[in-house]
Amino acid sequence: MSSDFETYEQDFGTLTAEVTNRIGKIPKLGGDEKKQMVASVEKQLEESRELLEQMDLEVREIPVQSRGMYSNRLKSYKQELEKLEKDFKRSRIAYSDEVRNELLGDDGNSSESQLIKLREERAHLLDNTERLERSSRRLEAGYQIAVETEQVGQEILENLHHDREKIQRSRDRLRETDANLGKSSRILTGMMRRIIQNRILMFILGAIILFTIVLAIYFSVRGH
Question: Cβ contacts of residue 142 below 8 Å, gap of 6+?
Fold first, then answer.
């Protein structure tokens, strides 16, 4: 488990080193080249966040007695990423001396206030953009949770429907069993009634036969 953490750790170190190098180049660029560099750094920062999420999952799987050391390392990496994101934000609104001179011309001192104002406007726009991105990510996460909840609810409803069908089938079988038991009870009652009737008839016939024998003996003895 710790070997996976160390693998993510190495990938994170390599990636953040590249990000640091590229952040330093951004103020010196302009136009499309700067846009491409900014997009590349944004992608690498996103990959760095994903690596931290993977490391966080790995830390949770590490035994408690060894977890503290890895938790501290993960915490330091999160702080490092936060610093990189702040540096990246500043680099997007910063200008190198060459770019600033191109923007201000020869009269750099007199236009310094314009540059500051432009920088503040860019910072404000970047803040708004980041807020929109965070809101968008939260909305996407909320939508995903809603979709997953709907799927779980649908599965629960399907399971309940299947359970209801099973219960209905069990009730039908129980009714059939009750009907069969009632029929069997009536048959047994009829059989017992016939058995009793037959025994009574046999008792009566036996009594008649015995009475006939007694009479025959009596008249035979009396005739002699």
Answer: none
Neighbours of 20 (CB within 10 A): 15
Alpha carbon distance 33, 138 (integer Å): 30
Q: What is the maximum span of the chain, computed from C-alpha positions, in angstroms?
A: 173
Q: How far apart are CA 40 and CA 56, in angstroms?
A: 24
- Cα atoms found within 13 Å of the Cα of residue 153, Cβ hemisphere only: 6
Q: Distance (Å, rounded) from C-alpha 44 to C-alpha 39?
A: 9
- The string of pLDDT tens digits covering residues 53-85 is 998 988 888 888 878 888 888 899 999 989 888
CA dist 82 and 75 (Å) reads 11
Tell me which DSSP letter residue 111 carries. Answer: T
Question: What are residue 30's phi and psi, to 5 degrees?
Answer: -150, 165
Tell me the C-alpha distance between 13 and 23, whole Å. Answer: 15
CA–CA gap between residue 103 and residue 112 (Å, rounded): 10
- Write phi, then psi, for 120 (nearest 5 degrees): -65, -40
Helix, strand or coil for residue 109?
coil
Write the pLDDT tens digit of every residue in 183-202.
888 898 889 999 999 999 99
Decide if 36 contacts 100 (C-beta within 8 A).
no
CB neighbour list of residue 74: distance below 8 Å, 6 or more residues apart = 52, 55, 56, 59
